[in-house]
Amino acid sequence: MDTEPLAARSDPAPRPISRLADARLLLAFAVTPFAAGGVMFVLSFAIFSSGVSVFAGSPADPFDAAMSLGVGVTILSVCVTVLGALPGVIWMARRAMLSFRNVLLLGVALGNLPFVLIVAGIIVTEFAKGTLSLNVPRLWEGTFGTVRAVALGVLVGVPTAAVFWLIGLARSSTDRSAFLR
Q1: What is the pTM of this model?
Q2: H-type helices in 96-141, by residue range?
Q3: How many Å apart are CA 98 and CA 169, to the nearest integer?
Q4: What's the rounded Cα separation, in Å, for the pair 1 and 3?
Q5: Measured CA angle at 87 (ends 111, 171), to 5 deg
Q6: CA–CA separation, 166 vs 163, rounded Å?
Q7: Residue 153 belongs to what H/E stretch?
Q8: Which residues does the chain have with pLDDT short of 70?
């Protein structure tokens, strides 16, 4: 697996733009939301089926509940992919920072972005209403809710980023992609 940053490669001259590299990247961006939804489905189905109490209550049908969460994450991931992953990958590529490690770290950050935005929205709303207090963490179930959200963000973000890497970047000549220039 090629995890070396693009700047570290010692190519004597720039190579022509590769349509295959572009196609792989576009395919990776298209698959990413479905990968995130699939990971969330498997993860939540395992949680619900095991009887571990991670969410409030226990669903009557673990498959149906997991399917709902998977579809919801797929829909949310379209926005995260377009507004977060696409600019993030382009930014890293232009700075020669497009390594496997950095793509996984981007997955961690983007996996937690929805929770960060929800908490920021709650705080702004509470502040605007004049009801902001030290008790506001109760709105996302306090410390347990924070740990759960961050853990789910990591557990969905990292495998999704790995799928993106495998499809779009592993063993490819991304330095020949017109898409990332």
Answers
A1: 0.78
A2: 100-129
A3: 9
A4: 6
A5: 85
A6: 5
A7: helix 142-164
A8: 1-17, 172-181
Q: Which residue has the tokens 């969330």?
A: 40
Residue 152 CA, distance from chain mean position: 10
Buried b (16+ CB within 10 A) or exposed e, 55-73: beeeeeebeebbeebbeeb
Q: Is 10 helix (H, G, I), strand (E, B) or coil?
A: coil
Return the closest-CA partner of residue 106 out of 151, 162, 147, 148: 162
Cα distance between residue 36 and residue 29, in whole Å = 11
Name 131's Cβ contacts closer than 8 Å, sequence gap at least 6: none
CA distance 47 to 50: 5
Which residue in this structure is represented by tokens 């770290």? Answer: 105
pLDDT (0 to 100) of residue 26: 93
